[in-house]
Write a structure and sequence with these properties.
The complex is a heterotrimer of chains A (352), B (333) and C (303). A 6-stranded mixed beta sheet of chain A has the order 6-7-8-3-9-10, with helices on both faces. In chain A, strands 13-17-14-15-16 form a 5-stranded antiparallel beta sheet, with no helix packed on it. Chain A has a 4-stranded antiparallel beta sheet with strand order 2-1-4-5, covered by helices on one side. In chain A, strand 9 and strand 10 form a beta hairpin. Chain A has 8 helices and 18 strands. Chain A is 24% helix and 37% strand. Chain A folds into 2 domains: 231 residues, P-loop containing nucleotide triphosphate hydrolases (Rossmann fold); 104 residues, OB fold (Dihydrolipoamide Acetyltransferase, E2P) (Beta Barrel). Chain B is mainly alpha-helical and 333 residues long. Chain B has 2 domains: 90 residues, no CATH class; 232 residues, MetI-like (MetI-like fold), CATH 1.10.3720.10. In chain B, helix 5 packs antiparallel against helix 11, helix 6 runs antiparallel to helix 9 and helix 9 crosses helix 11. Chain B is globular. The N and C termini of chain B lie far apart (53 Å). Chain C has 2 domains: 75 residues, no CATH class; 215 residues, MetI-like (MetI-like fold, Orthogonal Bundle). The chains are: A alpha+beta (352), B mainly alpha (333), C mainly alpha (303). Chains B and C meet through helix 1, helix 2, helix 3, helix 5 and helix 6 of B and helix 2, helix 5, helix 6, helix 7 and helix 9 of C.
Amino acid sequence: MASVTYDHVVKRYTADLTVVKDFNVAIKDKEFMVLVGPSGCGKSTALRMLAGLETITEGQIRIGDRVVNNVAAKDRDIAMVFQSYALYPHMSVYDNMAFPLQMQHMPKAEMDKRVKNASRILGLDNFLKRKPRALSGGQRQRVALGRAIVRSPKVFLLDEPLSNLDAKLRGQTRIELQKLHRDLETTFIYVTHDQVEAMTMGDRIAIMNAGILQQVGTPGDIYDHPANLFVAGFIGTPTMNFVPVTTSDSTAKASGFEVRLPKSVPAGKGTLGFRPEAVTDRAVDGGSSMDMKVDVVERLGSDQFLYGQVGGDSVTARVDPKMKVDPGDTVKLGLDTRNLHLFDAETELALL
Amino acid sequence: MDFNSLLSTLLADVPTLAAVIIGVPAVLAAYIVGGEFLVQRLPDKARPSLRPWIWVGPALIFVAFFLVYPVFGTAWRSLFDNHDNFVGATNYGTELAGFPSGGAWIAIRNNLYWLVLFTLLVLIFGLMFAVLTDRVPYESQVKSLIFMPMAISFVALATIWKFMYSYQPPGEPQTGTVNAFLALFHQDPRIWIQDANVANFALIAAAVWGFVGFAMVILSAALKGIPGDLLEAARVDGAGELTIFRRVIFPLMMPTIVVVGTTLVIFALKAFDIVYVMTNGNYDTDVLANRMYKLLNVGDTGLASAVAIILVAAVIPVLIFNLRQFRAVEARR
Amino acid sequence: MTIASEQIATRAAERRFSPDWLGQGFSKVLLHVVVLGITLVWIVPTLGLLVSSFRPLSAFASSGWWTALSPPFKFTLDNYSGVLGSSNLGGSFFNSFMITIPATVIPVTIAAFAAYAFSWMKFWGRDFLFLALVGLLAVPLQATFVPILKLYVQVGLTPQNVGFVGLWLVHTGYGLPFAIYLLANFFRALPTDLFESAEIDGAGTLTVFFRIVLPLSVPAIASLVIFQFLWIWNDYLVALVYVGSTPEVAPLTVTLAQLVGSLGQGYQLLTAAAFFSMIVPLIVFFSLQRYFVRGILAGSVKG
């Protein structure tokens, strides 16, 4: 049980390849922190540096109060669940889970107790004698978890543990992992490229892109107040609408409509951002309206999404599922201006 | 041999040249074309079931003729003496009589030395080198150099080592590398390949030198087949490097080690060239293959056949084991 | 970003070792010393021979080959010219080629057809025959000599009559199990889609074989050719048994072995002879190593 601090951490391979740039995050004890970002953004490298599987070029990583830069992986008291599970193929499930405890020279009775306990929690009691190749993907993943749990480590590291599971299993396991986190009361650091996992599982999310930390905050925070264009576009499905606008004072003018902004902004060019659910089939008090030529209609039963053109820009709208629309129609939609985002054309930072 | 005589040799051997350059390709082409011609003449329906036989036929014929038939022929032969009289198991009796130093027993004993020492040394060194070279950037160059002895003939290898074991009387400067090395430690030189106490081991050492590269290359491939994830997980789990080798790497390499080991055992049983060239089996170094050849040379076909069959009997169980393990390795992949 | 992910992928290959700081300092130096030391020890025998082959007789009997590496440098080509002039090495060189080339081409061709049949055609007894074939890898060649020799003599397939034909046929028979095994394994691993789409495109069996399978199999066939070539070039026993050691027909290995036995006085010529016999294999090995190693890996069964 410990906090984890990344202090100006940098990972550089060669002069022109810096994979993690000035990474600063303070993770609280018992927190479920998710590192999320597209492939190659450096999140796995950041995790591996914490695990002791990569050296740290610059900066410090602390577990609790202890600086672990030069501490070997085996002495850091952390447990890791790998994306590929990394189960020892020649050992039984029981032996796989007992292995880390054997490394600690734990007395057999205690070892047995812990393994049996973890096995019970994860529902592996019937599989203890099997070898990994006789298990399904979901079962293997649980063994990998079990191997981590038995150690009662200070921190749990999980590197994209759900990406090898099929969609249905993924949903189930997400829920189980959250329950596990509550029961174990230990810090979890979870790496994924899937923003849905990030939003649903994390107490807080840290978003990375190209080695740079974009924003850290609770899911709600990040959703409602993205710090820049990248974060706004990365979180949320369907993606936020981005429309180039020209600003002057409190007005933003797009090619197909105009809005009043809640406050004054410098004149110039920018990107207006609004989520699909801000565009609806009903007029909004104090809001704007726009005309959309519909290209594609997606009916999901509980939701209906319209994809079309407003002026010269592509826009996605989330409308009442009972609304009758067909591709080719032109509809009038209302824009709720209470949740607008404006991004600077150059810096892509949020201005609102 | 100067250029003129070389040229005249070439020209004198025109028939051979012709056979090689023209004859062989012609025969092969005839087979391919002729085979296809035959197939085309068959009714459409019969083609899929008959074509395979045309394709497999020559191979089966060759193999049956040169491998299957002769073994049975030899087994049959071993029941006769050199004047074609049936003598039953007498030849085997002669060969296997006089334990422990009569008949074929010295050769059998030596083959056992080879079997155990050669195999173990090659495996141990091969494994060690595979693990060590895995960690240096110039790995492929090193592997290349250590593997090189596999590319030359065993006769050349035997020659190289004859020179390594050269002997000069004590007090004289040594010309053989091994004896010179000993001289560095003020040890007396030995006549390695003519001293019955050490000759066997001298020969085995030469063979080990030749084969370590082979074992190393195969074991290295197996080593690299272990996913990096596993080793990282073990590290995170708290295992030190030696423990990782003992508990993760070595067990996972075991099937390959067994395949290599059994291949080496088969070689040890059939070893001939090195022994023949270096000592011709003298000084207590005789091995079964060598003995068989000597018997054959003096026309003792009955006894030679018996020895050959003894060899077959020794090799078969090992090969069955070898094949089973190889399939296990393949299945895992 | 793609370049970055590529480079990170290569890092993944290095994940087998512990991170840098574990391997630093003393243990790293020790590792290099050990590895280089081993390599040196392994090169010494061959190096010794090579250096010796350039030394005059006078130096030979009086000092070790390593002394030649320091001044005064007394190197000579006498050994080479001597042994090439006085022995049959030149002719043997020719003979080795005449033996090896057909004995490589024939089995590879036959094996290619047979392996394809075993992999992709259905016929009665296919699996059993394949297993039996692989099992034949066990047969010690010694157990086949007597009957074949007798037959050859009866039929007239002797070196005097037909030169190397008998030897070619024998090597084909001996080499087929391994060749078929290696190629069949490779052919079997080809994706079925390939054949299916060729069939839809209207290709017959022979077309598929020559225009799809063979081109794709070049690495495997190359490995086989090189492996077989070296195996036969370096072979001693089979040549000795079937063509004997007369100068007209002896290949390099046989001639070299004779020299080992017969060169009492001319001991130093042997070094040149041995090295001469190694030239072709060494060239083949170092230039086509990749294929040779692949052959070894695939055929670690060959006894």
